[in-house]
Amino acid sequence: MRSLLLIDNGSSRPDSTLNLRRIAERLAERVGEPVRPVSLLHADRVPAERLDGRPAEILAPTLRRLVGAGVRDLRLLPLFFGPSRALTRFVPELAAEVVAELGPFRLEIAPELCPLPAGEPRLVEILADNLAAAAERAAIEPRRVVLVDHGSPIPEVTAVRRRLALELAERLGPGVRLEEAVMERRPESEYDFNGPLLEEVLSRLAEADRATPILLSMLFLSAGRHAGPEGDIAQIRARIDARFPPLRIEVSPLVGSHPGLIEILADRL
């Protein structure tokens, strides 16, 4: 019998691990078999008492424990938008180490959430739904949208955001101006493909027009360091609000909170 592992990058914020568990529980109900929530790194820094008394599971020790107990058929479901090095390098290297230590086993990595060139139209619908929810909550018309993600030095990962941005812009129509931004990027010019930082984009838009609200389309799965309460995005928003009154910046829900994500993950099986 196979063992299903839902994997994310991991975060030192408890909300991220708790969200991973919620998604795993809903996915298990959907597919009718257990799904183990596992992080690659970082989550083991969170005290168990902040995780309902149950410490986070980390991939390396979990993989060794399962294979050591005789499990020989594992499938990893990545909670990643694109082909992160975690999937293309870290996991295969870890698997090779475990094979050398404990013998052969089968490890299959399912496609990420938005594999290219096929893409994933349902992600675009999730982003559009979340924007509509944010606009309705704030009682505004979406006219300026910024699609923001973590940012990556890997062109193939950035290509996923660019693809989603193009399709989301088409979905929203010509009356909406959509831009892209990142939370992290390397300063060298060879990484310009990654896009501009969020605070730079918001400053430019605010200087041009303080009257038209800005909606942030959050290309994040969980409330970690960037997207969590009092996280980096909340702090940037507060700084822009202070500099450019009466500009309004509204934030969409996260992709990981949308029920449509479960259907995408189920199809990866």
UniProtKB/TrEMBL annotation:
One term of GO molecular function: lyase activity
Signal peptide: none
InterPro entries to which the protein is assigned, alphabetical: CbiX-like (IPR002762), Sirohydro_Cobaltochel/CbiX (IPR050963)
Keyword Lipid metabolism: no
Record's keyword annotation contains Lyase: yes
Organism encoding this protein: Allochromatium humboldtianum
UniProtKB keywords: Lyase, Metal-binding
Classification via PANTHER family: SIROHYDROCHLORIN FERROCHELATASE, CHLOROPLASTIC
Superkingdom as given in the UniProt entry: Bacteria
Pfam families: CbiX (PF01903)
Protein name per Swiss-Prot or TrEMBL: Cobalamin biosynthesis protein CbiX
